[in-house]
Model the fold of this input.
Amino acid sequence: MPNGAGRSKLHLKFKIMEKIISKTKNLNIKIQKRSALVRSKRKGFSLIEVVVATGLLAVALSSILTLAVNSQKNTRFLAEKTFATIKASDGLELMRRLRDDALLDGNPATDWQSNLTNNKADEIKVNAPFKFENKDFIRLVVVKDCGPACKEIQSTVSWDTHLVTMKTQLTDWRLES
Done:
């Protein structure tokens, strides 16, 4: 009996092990089928994920668009300011030219200071309107006394609500040496 009983116990243990393995395989198959079902349900994105992603994309695109619009506005303003600065500087240079023309005419009786405020300034259009990119710019040059043989020149260019002002002083350079 020990031999037969041992074999039957061994056979019984073997049968129990086969049943356990069989049930485990069935359980593994069921688990695999269930995970396959879960995966097949999760192939796409949920509605919430799509809405959140669309919202983030909209915020990013609107930020980029705002940046581009502001960049274009700043570029236009800087072009206008550059034009106004050039015209204000031209106003000062025109007044220097009037002074130099008066000083270099060879006549010591020529009053260079009155040359800055008489009709010659009007002839060369010192105070004149300008157009740039369909905007009106106005230059105004003002001459003030700042001492004997000295004039302060202020050239101001305005457009929309902006303005650029430049100043200089003109003297009789013949007296300075």
About this structure: The mean pLDDT is 81. The two ends are 141 Å apart (CA to CA).
